[in-house]
Amino acid sequence: MSVQVQTARGNLVVEPSESGFGARVTGVDLSRPLDGETPAAVKAAFARHGVISFPDQPLNLDALEAFTLQIGAFGEDPFIKPMEGRPNVLELRREPDEKATNFGAGWHADWSFQAQPPAATILRAEVVPPLGGDTLFADCAAAYEALSETMKAVLAPLRAVHSAARPYGTKGVFARETEKRTMQIITSPEAEKTQVHPLVRTHPVTGRKALFVSPVYTVGIEGMTEKEAGAILGFLFAHMTQPQFVYRHKWVKGTLLMWDNRCTIHFAEGGYDGHLRVMHRTTVAGETPV
Ligand code: SIN
């Protein structure tokens, strides 16, 4: 059911998807400072729906940065060269002649290998291809809640091991890549470091528990053999990404999307070879997962 909030500048409307995971927010101009009821309404929609989209937001990069800072401090983006003069903005750009796999083409929560991974990511569509290029999101809280009480009890004490090695390590996917890529990826031995987090984390705002693992960045489970961890993680990855937990975002130029990395994972779908796609991305700093 859609929710309307009367603000000083009109009516802010939140229209959830059928499942309630993912929502569209209209009646707000993100190029101006959010005032009155608006910041609380935006944050409430974000907490409730995990992924929120704001159509028709013609923001320049200054405005994108200013909006981000109203949500929280910038996060730290490693392994990718940021835009010139904009240390906190990444341009996700794929040229029509690029054959390399599109960036983000594996399920992940952003930078989960950091000690304090980003709470949110903000992505604004600058150039949208005429086909393909959707972003898929999985609801990791709903996926957790759907598990049996027995499985929840098994997972409760577990700590998952995260690392950036698979994509960004010196022997990782990007290091081995031979095809042209416009985005400048910086592979590094730094990526081989590991970070342990609870496998099930509690959202600091909603109190909901969510699975906090992903195929791209979760490389093991503390105290388990590779085979043991692989069996549990393999089951969880398949479970989390079932259609009933997935929201598919279809992009329109000028839409700004904000997702919660604490309770979602996402996957950037390709399917637009021969066409330009340009997105601008910022992250919002997060907290130590508990
Ligand atoms: C990402 O941030 O993982 C990429 C998302 C996208 O390009 O759709």
Topology overview:
Blueprint: E1 3-7, E2 10-16, E3 23-26, H1 38-49, E4 51-54, H2 61-71, E5 90-94, E6 120-127, E7 135-139, H3 140-145, H4 149-155, E8 159-163, H5 165-168, H6 173-176, E9 194-198, E10 200-202, E11 209-211, E12 218-221, H7 226-240, E13 246-249, E14 256-260, E15 264-268, E16 277-284
Parallel strand pairs: 3-4
Antiparallel strand pairs: 1-2, 2-3, 4-14, 5-16, 6-14, 6-16, 7-13, 7-15, 8-9, 8-12, 10-11
Keywords for this entry:
binds succinic acid, alpha+beta, 290 residues, Double-stranded beta-helix, three-stranded antiparallel beta sheet, 28% strand, eight-stranded mixed beta sheet
What global shape is seen? globular
Instruction: List how many beta strands DSSP finds.
Output: 16
Q: Which quaternary structure do these chains form?
A: single chain
Helix content: 10-25%
- Main sheet makeup: 8 strands, mixed
What is the H level of CATH, i.e. the homologous superfamily? Clavaminate synthase-like
> How much of the sequence is in beta strands?
25-35%
Strand order of the largest sheet: 1-2-3-4-14-6-16-5
- Spans of at least 5 consecutive residues whose pLDDT stays below 50 are none
Q: Radius of gyration in whole Å, from Cα?
A: 19 Å
What is the CATH architecture descriptor?
Answer: 4-Layer Sandwich
Average pLDDT confidence is 97
CATH topology: Double-stranded beta-helix
CATH top level class name: Alpha Beta
What would you call the structural class? alpha+beta
Alpha carbon gap, first and last residue: 31 Å
Series of H and E elements:
EEEHEHEEEHHEHHEEEEHEEEE
